[in-house]
Amino acid sequence: MTSVKIDEAIERYVKERKTNDRSVAENRFLSYTYLVCGEGDAAIFMRKVRGLVGYYINYLTVLENPLHGPQAGWLALMSIVFAFGLYMLTNDDLRVAGIFVCTGTLVNGISLARAVIAKWVETAVMIAFYREIVEPIDSTLPAEC
Description:
Number of strands: 0
Helix content: over 70%
Order of helices and strands: HHHHH
Shape: rod-shaped
Distance between the termini: 25 Å
Number of domains: 2
Radius of gyration: 23 Å
Structural class: mainly alpha
């Protein structure tokens, strides 16, 4: 039982969950688990899957958060440049340059904000899928003391 098989089981669940509802994805995940490991090693496999899913949830929550990455810095920089462009609009000599600066930062800021929102939504969906994997594992495995 390698981490490649564990990753493959998780990826299969996520892929199946994106196309079907939760019960179908859970049933296929459990059947894949029993197919890969057999009856005896399924509990060990599920514990390892649960551990890796917990790691993935923590990783996505902390490191893949788009508001903590370089995109947030770029959005802050664009807002500062936009504010400077607004200042340039108030000066008669710099009005044309201010128009170009404001429109350029507005267009780029909107596209960057859309990318940040898309990444945020994708991260939230993946975290939700990973939490869905934990639930059937917890219900299948006996409670540990």
